[in-house]
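Margin note from the TA: students keep mixing up input and output lines. Inputs are the sequences; the output is the structure of the whole complex. Example:
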Amino acid sequence: MESLLYPIRNRFRDEMKLDGLWRFSFDREEKGEGDGWTKGLPKSAINMPVPASFNDFFTDKESRDYCGPFWYECDFYAPEKQEGKKTYIRFGSVTHRATVYVNGVEVGSHEGGFLPFVLDVSEAVNYGENNKLVVKANNELDETTLPCGNVSTLKNGKKLVKPYFDFFNYAGIHRSVWVMSLKNEHITDYDVVTDINGDTAVVKVKLVAASASFKLKGKVVLKDRDGKVVADSTFDMSDSNNTDNTVSGKCELTVKEPVLWDVKKPYLYDIELSVIDGEVIDSYEDKIGIRSIEIKGTDILLNGKPVYLKGFGKHEDFDIIGRGFNYGVAKRDFECMKWIGANCFRTSHYPYAEEWYRFADEEGFLIIDEVPAVGMMRSFFNFMDAGRGAKYTYFFETDTVPKLKENHLNAVREMIVRDKNHPSVISFSLFNEPETISTFAHDYFKDIFEYARELDPQKRPLTGALEKTSAPDKCQCYQFCDFISLNRYYGWYISGGSELSDARELFIEEMDQWKALNLNKPFVFTEFGADTLATEHKLPSVMWTQEYQNEYYDMNFEIFDKYDFVKGELTWNFADFQTSEGTFRVAGNKKGVFSRNRQPKDIAFKLKERWEK
Ligand code: EVA
């Protein structure tokens, strides 16, 4: 795998963002290749902003709901001085898959729409000239893709994507694109693990470089916020990994009286990593936090102290730009989360743009980082079917499973490699609401969890979000989780409105069953919420009004507070968001505590009061 390190610029490294206005064509007849689009798009191509989803720019349904292949193109200049070095193109994400061409030469492809990929284009680039970059993307879903879904064909022949999940299937180049120039021998990765012992911390670093030479030395320097060196080490890079032509080395740095990274007190150290062959030949700079995260009994311990998670399940979702990353939106979201007294969010239902994690490191937020394993149940409304006790076909019992699992393992690997060094990331979530009651599901997830455990150098707690069918007496997968994550809608999908008192009893019944299992693990509510129209008020309340959202939350809080093993509440959702259309969605999902344009509903003030206590 190529290096997933976030691009930076320094004495040895160059990067250029290709964000801006690209050219774009739908490929309705799937004739792009035949017509030579790999060398450049036809004159009829239109303008398209990057990063963004293409969907909501259009004023016609056919374009918004387009399903199939679509193409992007831009030009970039490769300076002569970069010749002889390595040139890479790095995509933050292309949803859901992409094949990339430089000057007509295919340079690689990637499956999965929520994680970065990096392609070596050194041989395809013309230095001292303009180069044509073409991307063929595709947004179709099936039961092997992450997330899962399928494609149906209308009587008029048009394809329509059918997600098995409750968010709009936005597509496009959603995150920044970079051209990077690196030296032939360069740093490809590093891991950092911090052990805290009284007033000393040991920072263990593993450094990996693309090189065939065992003579390289590695060097790590750690500086505090004022730029003062607090520890450094020089070491041999003598471990080789022949399968990917890298060498690596390790060191341990002792930091006396470290300032720990903590919630809302996010102290970050500068880390400078170098490789030396007589002289420094490459270096990489980043920021790290010294902190510990562990589960002890029913507690989640951050730096040895219990922490209660308060916050949200979110989406990357905004007006017009869809799922495209935008710093302004992220900034507003962090300001809203700070204002309300939250300390945590789950990247439901996919890993977000890397800038979110860098932001959270700086702002002192905790992240449950989720892989795009959503829709692993053959039901479009699993959140409702579950409440009705509907029966599912076993999802993990078909011949599509090996491919699905391969995609799932790949996404887990890419997510952990990308996000492992962020102090903000306190857990990896490996699924959202799959079928978990069959032995097939058990065997499937056993392997997924084992793989993630082995990969994460920090051995963070692992979890997965369970819906109602994954009941205490039926679920075969909760034991893989270090803390149990429940998505529950008592009072919404189950006994809503005037039946709220029944919902309360049913909720208690289920919680008592979990309690009786004596799992000695923390429980976190990773979803609970009620659809609420920001325009609606009614006394007495009915469902969908702001008054009902308040009553619903009051009932849920009463239950959470009753069970001392409940160690977190992440509401569904931070903000209203776009979904597929249907009789159950009023131009989207309205369970937001904030509206889609990030203004508070009444419930926001109740949460603020509770969370600030
Ligand atoms: C809901 N319920 O019904 C949410 C979905 C979410 O948006 C779930 O995990 O159980 C899902 O995706 O509003």
